[in-house]
Design brief:
Udp-n-acetylmuramoylalanyl-d-glutamate--2,6- Diaminopimelate Ligase, Chain: A, domain 1; UDP N-Acetylglucosamine Acyltransferase, domain 1; eleven-stranded mixed β-sheet; 4 helices
């Protein structure tokens, strides 16, 4: 399970799933489907989806039993994976995800929280005033929590961590020696929905946020939990203030990211990446190792290892300088 915190209502019969979302079933068997996963992590008796040529190589090796996809992509699936054809892949997979995880749609306030004085952490953690803690929370040794912070349900915090004031955390695994500065929001749902004139359909967000050892998250930053995979910040990575990291983003180790940088969903950064302030990275991109991105740049395509880029669209730094003399 991607998120151990959301209850899976499965298994569900494949015919039931398709009937519920009004999708033609072509007389499929009464196969029981236990979960929904992305192409890479899906296993036998699970369902996945393929909607873009960017994921064809993953699709060729998926272990899933079923895959929602379009007519154009069905030939890329292995024999073990039966294609279910639809012209609304993402919308239909969102509907199925909601069936399996109905509690993952909304992020209402956590009504399980208690004043930290009423919890087991009152003598284990140093904390400021008005600190609240929810159910299923673990906090390691030598941690500090600032004023007015809320550690909502389903959070695991390691040793030697510092949580600033006015911070909200939920659905997150935070490793050791992590510093989360004032005003951050970690683990809330990402921005995913399908527009509709009468009612926008929210995409369920069933992933979590994983923050590795020795990471620092600057003031006012927001890190969304994953949708069908996890949002991950690699060890020894430092984020400046007011950074937004959308769902499913993977940031490598030893990265340095300046203020007001934004990452759209499902992009991946390698190790030792440096990004200047107010840059933007579009979704579903791959940024290689040892890449440097100049401040204010707009990244709209993949960047290979050891590149230095700047501008909009981001291009090789030498070309950018030559064109802007």
């Amino acid at each position: 399970m991607i998120n151990p915190f959301f209850k899976n209502t499965g298994p569900h019969n494949i015919n039931f799933l398709l009937r519920t979302i009004n999708l033609k079933n072509d007389n499929l068997s009464e196969h029981k489907i236990v979960d929904i996963k992305d192409l890479n992590s899906a296993k036998k008796n699970e369902i996945t989806f393929l909607h873009s040529k960017k994921y064809i190589e993953l699709a060729k090796n998926t272990k899933a039993s079923y895959c929602l996809t379009s007519e154009n992509f069905k030939s890329f699936l292995p024999k073990n994976c039966k294609a279910i054809i639809t012209d609304k892949v993402l919308f239909n997979i969102a509907q199925i995800t909601k069936i399996f995880y109905p509690d993952s749609i909304t992020d209402d306030y956590d009504n399980t929280v208690k004043d930290i004085h009423e919890t087991e952490f009152k003598d284990k953690v140093k904390f400021g005033k008005n600190v609240l803690v929810g159910e299923n929370v673990k906090i390691g040794a030598d941690c500090l929590i600032g004023h007015n912070s809320i550690i909502e349900k389903n959070v695991n915090i390691g040793d030697n961590c510092t949580i600033g004031s006015n911070v909200i955390i939920r659905n997150s695994f935070i490793k050791n020696s992590v510093h989360i500065l004032d005003g951050c929001v970690i683990g809330k749902k990402g921005f995913g929905f399908f527009p509709n004139k009468e009612f926008n359909f929210r995409y369920p967000q069933i992933g979590i946020v994983i923050i590795e050892d020795n990471v620092e998250i600057g003031c006012g930053s927001t890190i969304d939990r994953g949708s069908l995979s996890n949002t991950i910040i690699g060890k020894n990575t430092y984020l400046d203030n007011q950074i937004h990291i959308a769902h499913n983003v993977k940031i490598g180790e030893n990265c340095i990211i300046a203020g007001q940088v934004g990452f759209a969903g499902s992009s991946t950064l390698g190790n030792n990446v440096m990004i200047g302030g107010q840059a933007g990275v579009s979704g579903h991109l791959k940024i290689g190792n040892n890449v440097q991105i100049g401040g204010g740049s707009g990244v709209i395509k993949n960047i290979p290892d050891n590149s230095r880029v700047m501008g909009y669209p981001a291009k090789d730094l030498k070309n950018f300088i030559r064109e802007n003399k």
